[in-house]
Amino acid sequence: MNQAVQFERAIGDCFHLFIPADPETEMRKAIRDAMCVENAVKLMLSGGVSPEELLEMVEPVVVDIDQYIEEVEESLEEIGLA
Amino acid sequence: MAKKHRRFGALHKALKDTGYQATSGPAGEYLKFLQGTNKIVVARRPDSKYLKRFNVGVTPFDIDVPTGANVITAYQGLITVQGNNILKAVTGITDSIMGIERDLTKTKEVPGFYAALAHITIAATGQTPSKGNKTSGITKRAYTAINTRTGGVPYGRSTGVTDSTGAAISDLSKANEEDSRAFIMNAIKGKTFGNWIVKGATFTPETHPESGTFGVTLDASAPTDIPSS
After folding, report:
1. What ipTM was estimated for this complex?
2. Eight-state DSSP code of residue B162
3. What's the predicted TM-score (pTM) here?
4. Residue ranges covered by each domain of chain B
5. Do A12 and B204 touch (CB under 8 A)?
6. Looking at the domain assignment, is residue A22 inside a domain?
7. CA-based nearest distance B186→chain A, Å
8. In chain A, where does DSSP find H-type helix?
């Protein structure tokens, strides 16, 4: 696998939303929200927006932005980038 | 706007305020991380036999699906043994739902293509982690989490899923990623097997060779009309 692509996908995954498999989850909405975040992350990784602007973009679809930031940081930490 | 102070941004500031001389607390531990004393240790890394990867085929979402007799639509992607084992173990999802083709003679290799992945996370049932049972490798702060396993399963266009109205997908050209994701998530929702419970999933979109490159010209065979509504 191309290392640059692998790296980009690994970083992108750190920002992607986790969709709980709970029976209460409204899947279509959760999936649309996740795809919205993925598009914003793709834009950030291509240099189109800054990380701060990314947070502005995803805030409407992320339930708790502070918890989201914590989870992103934990994920980045797991791959050694925090 | 909600508070957006980045934890590590704050750590940088705290460290700077000490003149990069902090010896204890989160800032001190962070400095030790920067100096290489504190290291991140990936615990519970699966044995290498579970990380071995092999090929399967999926029909990408972001292509014009070719039609015709014996035409090959599936591009080769990679799956780990762990991902494959989770796919096989979780009731409700199948190769058909994921759009997986295992006969590689019915697939083609397209350099630069990386299949979309559903990272399905499972956890052993009955875990009751004590508060602060894990420690950050960077700040040495304690946090609470249960142990999980995650497997990345490639997925692509599938006629084994339904659309948003519940109707069957008649052919691959009608399939779309949102329908596949919704079907996969509804299929694994609330599922348990053995002493495992499915916790959820994240998704990685597929990557194409032309992503991020310039000089891709319009295909001469591209349609010039606008599809009717």
Report:
1. 0.87
2. B
3. 0.80
4. 8-39, 48-204
5. yes
6. no
7. 7
8. 3-15, 27-45, 51-58, 65-78
